[in-house]
Amino acid sequence: MDVRVLPDYEAMSDAAAEIVAQKLRAQPDAVFLIPTGTTPLGMYRRLVELQEREGLSFSNATFFNLDEYLGLASDHPASYHVYMKTNFYDLVNADPAKVHVPEGAAPDPEAECQRYEAAMREAGGVDLCVLGIGRNGHIGFNEPGAPFDSRTRVVRLAESTRLVNAADFEEKCAPERAITVGMQTIFECRQALLLASGSNKARAVKAATEGTVTEEVPASILSQHPDVTFLLDRDAALLLDETDV
Ligand code: PGA
Predict the structure, then answer these.
(1) Residue 170 designated active-site
(2) pLDDT per residue over 24-38, tens digit each?
(3) Rounded Cα gap, residues 159 and 165, in angstroms
(4) How far apart are CA 114 and CA 99, in angstroms?
(5) CATH fold for the domain made of 2-232
(6) Atom 8 of ligand 1 has which residue's CA nearest to it?
(7) By alpha-carbon position, which residue is closest to atom 1 of ligand 1?
(8) Strand arrangement, sheet containing 177-180
(9) End-to-end alpha-carbon separation of the chain, Å?
C-alpha cells in the first residue's frame, strides 16, 4: 500500500491524472473503472488538458463507471451518465462504443447488473480502478456492511450518503437505491487508486489505511490490495499516524 500525501486538492488531482495518463501511454487500450463525485473533478479537468496540450488519446481505452442511481434515466441531470458526459466523456476523444455506465432505468435491474459484470469480464478485467471514498468509508456505492465477495448489484444507499448527495437533486432528495460495481470486482482490478480530499474524509481515510480490515469500512479492503495507491491531500491525511509529507 502506497499512501501519498499532496499539499492540496490541485496537487492531488495532478498526481491522479498523471497516474491515469501513464497507464494510457503505456497501454492505450487499457480498461478503466472510474468514479463520480466532487473529488475526481480536478483529475478529469487535467486529463482534458493533457489531451489538448500533449495529445493524450483516450480513443482505444475502455471505461466503466462504478455506479448509477437506480431508476434514473440516463438523461436525468443528476444521473452519473450526465455527470460523466459533462465532465469527461464528451470533452475527450473517448470512443462512445467503449464507454459504459450502468443503466439505472433498466427494466430488469438484476439482469443489468449481470450484463455489466460480464462486460467488464469480457473486456479482460480492469487495469486501473480510480475510487473516491465516502465519509462512511464507502467505495462506489458499497456502503458499510457490503460483503467483500459482492459483485455488481442493486444496493440500498446509506441515509448519510443520501443526505450528502441530496444537493444534486432538484427535489433535494436522492434515490434510495443504486447499481454499484461490487467489492470483489473492485478488489480484482489490477491497480487501484483512491483519491481523498478534505478533512471530512480524514476519519474514513484513517480507518481504511490504519484500521482493521472489515466490511464495516469498505475501503479497508484496499489495504490488502497488491497494487494500491492512496492519493490524499493534507486535510484528508490529518489523522494518519505517519505520512510522507
Ligand atoms: P465525493 O464522493 O467525491 O463527492 O466526496 C466520494 C464518494 O462518496 O465516493
Answers:
(1) no
(2) 999 999 999 999 999
(3) 10
(4) 17
(5) Rossmann fold (3.40.50)
(6) 134
(7) 37
(8) 67-69, 177-180, 153-156
(9) 16
Strand ranges of the sheet holding 191-196, from the earlier edge strand across to the other edge = 2-6, 228-233, 191-196, 128-131, 31-34, 62-65, 99-100
C-alpha cell recorded at residue 114:
449481470
Global pTM reads: 0.97
Mean pLDDT along residues 83-109: 98
For cell 474524509, name the residue: 201
Q: What would the pLDDT profile of 164-203 be if each residue is shown by its tens digit?
A: 999 999 999 999 999 999 999 999 999 999 999 999 999 9
Q: What is the pLDDT of residue 242?
A: 72
- Cβ(193)–Cβ(131) under 8 Å? yes
Question: Can 67 be counted among the known catalytic residues?
Answer: yes
Q: What does the pLDDT look like over 47-78, one tens digit per residue?
A: 999 999 999 999 999 999 999 999 999 999 99
d(CA 171, ligand 1 centre) in Å: 20
Q: In the annotation, is 14 catalytic?
A: no
Average pLDDT, the chain: 97
**pLDDT, position 154:** 98
Task: Please work out whether the CB of residue 140 comes within 6 Å of at least one atom of ligand 1.
Answer: no
